[in-house]
Amino acid sequence: MHQGTLAASDTERDAGRVLSDDSPRIAMLTSRAMPANVPGPSRQRFVDAAFGRPTDLPPVWLMRQAGRYLPEYREVRKRLKFLELCADVPAAIEVSLQPFRRFGMDGVVFFSDILIPLPPMGLEVRLDEGGPQLPSPVRTAQDVARLHDFDPTVDTAFVTEIHRGLKRIVHDTAATIGFCGAPWTLATYAIEGGSSKSFATVKTMMHREPKLLEELLAKLADACGKYLAAQIEAGADVVQIFDSWAGELSRADYDRFARPATERLLSHLSRRSRVPVVLFASGSSHLVDSFGQMPVDVLSIDWKLPLDEARKRAGGKALQGNVDPGVLLGTPEGVREAVFAARSAAGRVGHIVNLGHGILPPTPPENVAAFVAAARAPLPT
Fold first, then answer.
1. Distance in angstroms (rounded) separating the CA atoms of residues 115 and 125
2. Within a domain: residue 381?
3. 234-272, pLDDT tens digit by residue?
C-alpha cells in the first residue's frame, strides 16, 4: 500500500492550487445538475440535526457519494489505483468535492477507506476490484502481539491533510465528514484475510479464544480512536463509524465483543458537544436497541427497518437514512417518493437524509440530483 505523504510546503501549495482552481465552481455550489430554486447546503443544518435540534430542512448526503457513478471520478481513477488515490492529497480532495460541486449536499465526506489504519499497525492490505486482501491474517497470539500503535499525524498524515484541505475550501458552507471502521468490522478483515460469507475464522476465535479476540479488538479500538480523533483535530465537523459486519453477530455477542470495543474507540474522541458521531451498521435491525444505549449521537438505519420503528428504539438519538440504494436505479419520480417516505417516517426533527447503504455504481447522476432536491423540497401535505 502506498503510504507516501507530502511535505507541509507541498501540501499547502497543492491545497492552494485546488482552492484557486475550484473556488468559482465552489461558490456556485448548485451546479447544472440542481434546479436554481433548491436551497443550498448548510454545515449548521447538518450539525443541528445530528444533535436533535430543529432545522429548516433535513440535511442530506449519501454514503459513497464520491464514486464510480460519476464520470469525473472515473477519469481520476484512470491514472490512480484506489489506494493510491486515498493517499494522494490533491486527488483525494478533488474526488471528495466532485459530488458537492454537482449536487450541493450538506455533507462532504473525505475520500478514503476503512482499512487505511491497518498498514501502519503492521498489516499489509491489497485492494483492487476483487475486494480487500490481507496476505498475512491475524490468527494467533503472536500475530496480535505484533500489531503496534501508530501516530495518525505521521503515519497517515495524508488523511489529516485531506481534511485540512477540504476545510480550507468548504469552510462552513457544508459539514466535512470523517470516518473510520469499527473494531469488530476491522477485526473480521484482519482475521479472515479479506471479505467473508460465513465469518467462520473470526467466529472460531470468538468461541475458542475469546480473550485473544478481545485483545485484538482493544488494540484496534485504541488505534482507530486516535485515528478518528486526529480527523476531528484536522477539522472534521462530523464523524461516522462504519460497523459493516455488526449484523453478523447476535445481540448477546455484539454486546459482549463489538459494543465494548466501539465504546472504547469513542472514549478517545474529544469535542463531543461540538462534533457529532454517527454509527452505521448495515443489516443490524436486531441491534438497534443496543445502539440506542451507546454514547453516539446518530444511528444510521438501513432500509429494512422503517424509520418510525427505529425512532421508538433509538434511545432519543437522531436518525440517518434510510432509502434503499436500489431505488436510485429507477426513476427520479420514484426517488422523490422514497425520500418523502423516509422523511415522513423519521419526523421533522433529528433526521439526516441518506441511503441505507452506499450508492451503487450504476446509479444515474440525475437520480442523485433528484435525491438531494427531494430532501430539500416541502413535504406534501
1. 8
2. no
3. 999 999 999 999 999 999 999 999 999 999 999 999 888
DSSP H helices in 36-77: 43-50, 71-77
The answer to whether residue 331 scores a pLDDT higher than 90 is yes
Domain residues for the domain of 252 are 8-376
Cell of 172: 462552513
> What residues contact residue 314 under an 8 Å CB cut-off, 6+ apart?
288, 291, 292, 299
Does the annotation count 68 as an active-site position? Answer: yes
Options 68, 126, 256, 264, the catalytic residue: 68
pLDDT tens for 263-283 read 999 999 988 899 999 999 989
Please check whether residue 3 lies inside any domain of the structure.
Answer: no
Cβ-Cβ contacts under 8 Å for 335 (sequence gap 6 or more): 323, 327, 328, 367, 370, 371, 374
- The arrangement of strands across the sheet holding 318-323 comes to 107-109, 175-181, 238-242, 277-280, 298-301, 318-323, 351-355
Q: In this structure, is residue 1 part of a structural domain?
A: no
**Cis omega (within 30 of 0) for bond into 322:** yes
**Known catalytic residue: 313?**
no
CB 300 within 8 A of CB 320: yes
Instruction: Please indicate whether residue 64 is annotated as part of the active site.
Output: yes
Q: At what angle do helices 210-233 and 183-192 cross, to 10 degrees?
A: 120
Clarify whether 189 is annotated catalytic: yes
Task: Count up the domains in the chain and report the number.
Answer: 1
101 is catalytic: no
Is 40 within the bounds of a domain? yes
β-pair type (298-301, 318-323): parallel
- Pick the catalytic residue from 69, 73, 189, 254: 189
Record the pTM.
Answer: 0.91
Q: Residue 256 sits in a domain of what CATH number?
A: 3.20.20.210
Sign of CA dihedral 18, 22, 23, 29: negative
Which of 43, 64, 139, 164 is flagged as catalytic?
Answer: 64
Using pLDDT thresholds of 50, 70 and 90, give the confidence band for residue 33: low
The proportion of the chain whose per-residue pLDDT surpasses 90, expressed as a percent, equals: 87
